[in-house]
Structures are given as structure tokens and as C-alpha cells.
Design goal:
Nucleotidyltransferase, domain 5; 335 residues; two-stranded parallel ribbon
Length: 335
């Protein structure tokens, strides 16, 4: 098994342009295209991706640790870029893919859309991700039903296991309307909710299979479960930070930090005189991390910085705060 797992989910809307082409309708006659669909769930080729939610976790001695979590969407970049970035990440990590009904929906749709946009995705095709029984691609909907008829919904399983389930009040039938209204952040939040539930179910299944000990499972789940955040010590002042800083070897050791600590989201940062170039000697000027550091002005909260970072792919909570504090680019409030 790979040392990385990528748990993911797609949110889609009907591709009315494709329906028009297939049924020889007049260009942009979307009313007729909707009549052809008849209010039914479209066939796989007739879906357009508007959001890809994902959690990437890495295997450690303590179990599984979340590296990044995000849901880039069509409100900020076109579908082609969403897909290209996603399949590139898969190629880089060669992770185990985990979905809920991914064999029945997400994987086929992802492949169809990559074909539509003529995207090269050797990282997907060189590993048997599209094999229903592959160990590299785990569809929990299939696995938990023993590939038979004993299926339940993601919400039902989540709530049965004591997880949040679909608590936002949004479901898949709302995505087209929300997309048309430009409410992509709400789509992304809903998508991440599904991804988080899927990841937590997968962790429980890993415990069931004996691939995690009870202690490893508890630690792994605590790192993704907001309700268990109290198990970490919260760092909210400069004095608290200085007391633990020397435990970490360098400014990139934020994953070690996150095993035991988190930063107080309400803490306000103070910008020092250290130039960005000294804090980020290897960063590309104008790149994602550079942009995040530029936003770290005096008075900004930890929560604001994490929110800014979440807009970029592969964002990791508290990572930029850790680096900025370690290098002396910012300070936390005095006690």
C-alpha cells in the first residue's frame, strides 16, 4: 500500500453543451437540452466538474496524518485546470485513492472530462485505479457492501458511526442551482464535508482490518476531527510559542508540530521587520506561499491566514503560521 492516501469527491453540473452536440440541437439551445435530460440524473459523459474536494494523508508511525485538505472550484479556475492539477497530484504521489461510490461515478466522470479537455493523465492510467477490485482504489460504498446489495448512503453510514454526516443542509441536487448562482464556496464546503466523512469512515475500516492499532486510529481521527481539537495544546501567545519552538528542527517541521499543538485561531499576529525573502529563501516571488506571507500584516488573525492558505492547492492548516513564527517573520501576542 502507498504511504499516501487521497480521499476525494466530485461535484458536478450537467454539461448542456455536450447534450446539445449529442442530440443535434441548435447551438446554445439549453432549454431543449434540459428537456432532453428530463430532470433525470445525466449519464456520466454529460457531467461537468465544478469542484474537486480532497484530503491527502501520509502514513506515519502514529497512523495517518493529514497533509492537505481543500476543494478548489470553478469559481476560481476553469474545469480543465481543476482536472489537470488534480491528476498531476495523483501522478506525483501515486496514492491509494479512496472514494464513496467512486467506481460508479467519480472515476468514470473524471476520465470522461479529462478526455473532453484532452488532458494527459498517465498517473491515472499507469496504476489500476479503474479496476473495481484494485487495492490502489478503494470505493467504500462497494467495499462495505461486500460488492453486493447491502449498500447504504454516505450520510447513513456516517451518522451510524457517530460522525457528522451531511450536516450543512445541502445535497447533490442543490449543486446546479448553487453553481448558477455563483455560490461556489458553499459547494466547496459541502464537498469537503463529504470528503471528511469518507476519510473518517476509511480510518475506521483500516482499524477493522487491523492496519491501524486503536491508538493509531484515535490519533489519526483526532487530526481530522474538529470535535477532538481539544486533545492538542493550543498555542496563543508568543511566550507559549517560545517555550516549544526548540522542539522542532527547522521551519518546515509543521507536521510534527500539528501532532501535539495547534494555534489559537483568534490570535492576532504582529508583523516584524524580517523581509519575506529571508523567511522564504526558496519561495518563488509571487507564488502561493509568497502571496500568503504578504497578507500577514499586523492585526491579521491565525484563522484569516489559514483561510487565505486554503484557497491554494495542497494547503495545510497552520503550516504557514508555523514557518512565519519559526523564522521570526511574525509574532503572536504577548501574554
Amino acid at each position: 500500500m502507498s504511504n499516501y492516501v487521497l480521499v476525494w469527491d466530485l461535484e458536478t453540473v450537467p454539461d448542456l453543451d455536450a447534450v446539445v452536440r449529442v442530440h443535434d440541437l441548435e447551438d446554445s439551445d439549453f432549454d431543449s437540452a434540459l428537456e432532453v435530460l428530463g430532470g433525470k440524473f445525466p449519464k456520466h459523459p454529460f457531467h461537468k466538474i465544478v469542484c474537486i474536494g480532497a484530503i491527502i494523508a501520509e502514513r506515519t508511525a502514529h497512523g495517518w496524518e493529514v497533509m492537505s485538505r481543500g476543494a478548489p472550484h470553478a469559481g476560481r479556475r476553469p474545469e480543465k485546470e481543476l482536472i489537470r492539477s488534480f491528476v498531476s497530484r495523483i501522478a506525483d504521489l501515486q496514492p491509494t485513492l479512496v472514494t464513496f461510490n467512486g467506481n460508479g461515478f467519480d472515476l468514470p466522470v473524471l476520465r470522461y472530462r479529462a478526455l473532453v479537455h484532452r488532458i494527459s493523465a498517465p498517473g491515472l492510467s499507469s496504476v489500476p485505479y479503474f479496476n473495481r477490485y484494485s487495492q490502489q482504489s478503494v470505493d467504500l460504498c462497494d467495499v462495505l457492501a461486500s460488492y453486493g446489495s447491502a449498500k447504504a448512503t454516505l450520510h447513513e453510514i456516517s451518522r451510524t458511526l457517530g460522525f457528522a454526516g451531511k450536516s450543512s443542509g445541502i445535497d447533490g441536487s442543490d449543486v446546479s442551482r448553487l453553481s448558477a448562482e455563483g455560490r461556489f464556496d458553499e459547494i466547496a464546503a459541502y464537498c469537503l464535508e463529504d470528503v471528511t466523512n469518507t476519510y473518517r469512515i476509511w480510518l475506521a475500516h483500516e482499524l477493522f482490518c487491523g492496519r491501524l492499532t486503536e491508538e493509531q486510529y484515535k490519533k489519526s481521527d483526532a487530526l481530522v476531527n474538529p470535535d477532538m481539537e481539544h486533545e492538542r495544546r493550543v498555542i496563543g501567545t508568543q511566550q507559549q510559542w517560545e517555550a516549544v519552538k526548540d522542539r522542532f528542527r527547522n521551519a518546515s517541521a509543521y507536521r510534527e508540530f500539528r501532532r501535539e499543538y495547534s494555534f489559537d485561531p483568534s490570535a492576532r499576529l504582529t508583523r516584524t521587520s524580517l523581509p519575506i525573502r529571508q523567511a522564504l529563501p526558496r519561495a518563488h516571488e509571487g507564488g502561493a506561499r509568497w502571496s500568503i506571507f504578504e497578507q500577514m500584516t499586523t492585526g491579521i488573525t491565525v484563522a484569516d491566514v489559514n483561510q487565505a492558505a486554503s484557497l491554494f492547492d495542497n494547503a495545510e492548516r497552520d503550516a504557514d503560521i508555523f514557518t512565519a513564527l519559526y523564522t521570526g517573520y511574525v509574532h503572536l501576542p504577548e501574554a
